[in-house]
Amino acid sequence: MPDFIYPTNEELKTIEQTKIHALSMNDPIFEHFPIVDVDSHVLSWEQRDNYKGLQQVRGLNGQPKRVNAVGGKKFTIEPGVYGEFATIDEIELTTRRQWGSFNQPVNIDDLVTEKQDQLLARRIDRIKAVLWTLVTLGVFTVLNELGQTVYGGTFPVQSFTAGVAWGTSATATPLANFRAVQLLSRGYSVDFGTRAKAYMNRVTFNKLVQNLNANDLAGRRTSGLNSVLNLTEINAILAGEGLPMIVVYDEGYLNDAGTFVPFIADDKVIVIGARPANQPVGDYAMTRNANNPNMEAGAYMKVVDDEDDVPRLITVHDGHNGGPRIYFPSAIVRMSV
C-alpha cells in the first residue's frame, strides 16, 4: 500500500534578527566626528601655531620690540579605499521564498534591498570601528583578508592611567582620576568640564559604581545624604565638581566568526572635550570616488543585473573612499582604568 504524508499544522513567523544593525549614522561618535564629503583624494589641512609669550616692556621714548611671526603646520593623510559586493544568483532568484511564508516567491527588489542593507551595515560598522579605535588607542589599522595592514593612521591624543584600577573597589579613586584629566585642558582651548563626555562600556561602569573608597566616590552623598548608587547620581556628583559627564556606551559589531567585539574595550574610558564654540574635534571625510556619477565624493551603491546572460546574476556593490581626521587631538583623553 502507498504511504500517505499528512501535512502538519504549523505556524511560520518571521522575527527580528538577534542583533539589529543601525542603518543610519545614529551613534554618539558622529557627534564629535561628523561625516563630510571632500572633492579630492588626498586629505590635507593646516593649523597655525599658538601665540606665545607676553608683551615686552618699552618704556617712555623706548623702541618697541619686534615679535616673531607665527608659523604653522600642515597635515596630510590618504583615505582608505573600501568596497565589496554580494551576489544574487539563478538558484536564489528561482527558489528563494519570502521570509515568513511557505510558498511566496520573493520579489527581486526585496532580494536587492536585503543585500544593500547587509552591505550598508558593514560599511557603517567599519567607519564606527575606525573612529572608536582611533580615539581609544590613538592609532587605527585596517587589515585585509590575509591579516596584513593595508591602511592606518596615528594621531597624538592625550592619555591618562589610573594609579589604582577601578576594579579594586576598596582603594580606586575615580573622582580623583577625573579631576586629574580635567587638568589636561591646560594650554589648550578645550573644556574637560561638564560639556565633555566620558564614554565607557557597561563592564567598566559596573566597576565604577561598585566603588567602596570612602575617601573618593563612595564617600560622597546625594542631596538626601544617601550613598551614590546609579549613573544619574554619579553624574550629579561629577557636575558639582565641573567634571565630564559619563555616557555608558556598550555598542560593538559581530566579526565574521560571529563574536561580539565592543567598540570600547573593558577598562577604557574615552573623554572627548568641548571646543570653545562646540566645533567638532575631527571628522570622517568621504573623498572623491570614480564609481559615483561625475566622480563625486561619498559612498557608492550600485546594482549590476546581467539579465541578458545565462545564468542570470545580479551583483550588489557598496563602498567608499574615506578616512578620519582629528583636528584637535588634545581634546581627546584615553583613560586606562
Nearest-integer average pLDDT: 88
- Based on the coordinates given, report the CATH architecture: Alpha-Beta Complex
Largest sheet data: 5 strands, mixed
Number of helices: 6
Helix content: 10-25%
Write down the oligomeric state: single chain
CATH classification, class level: Alpha Beta
Series of H and E elements: HEEEEHHEEEHEHHEEEEEEEE
Radius of gyration, whole Å: 27 Å
Task: Give the total of beta strands.
Answer: 16
Counting helices, strands and paired strands, the structural category is alpha+beta
Taken from the alpha-carbon principal axes, the silhouette is flat
Number of domains: 1
Stretches with pLDDT under 50, minimum 5 residues? 12-16
Distance between the termini: 75 Å
Brief summary:
The protein is of the alpha+beta class and 337 residues long. The protein has helices at 29-32, 90-95, 108-137, 174-182, 202-209, 231-240, and strands at 35-37, 43-48, 72-77, 80-88, 139-143, 149-154, 158-161, 197-200, 245-248, 252-254, 260-262, 268-272, 282-286, 300-305, 314-326, 332-336. The protein has one domain (35-48, 72-336): phage-related protein like fold (Alpha-Beta Complex).
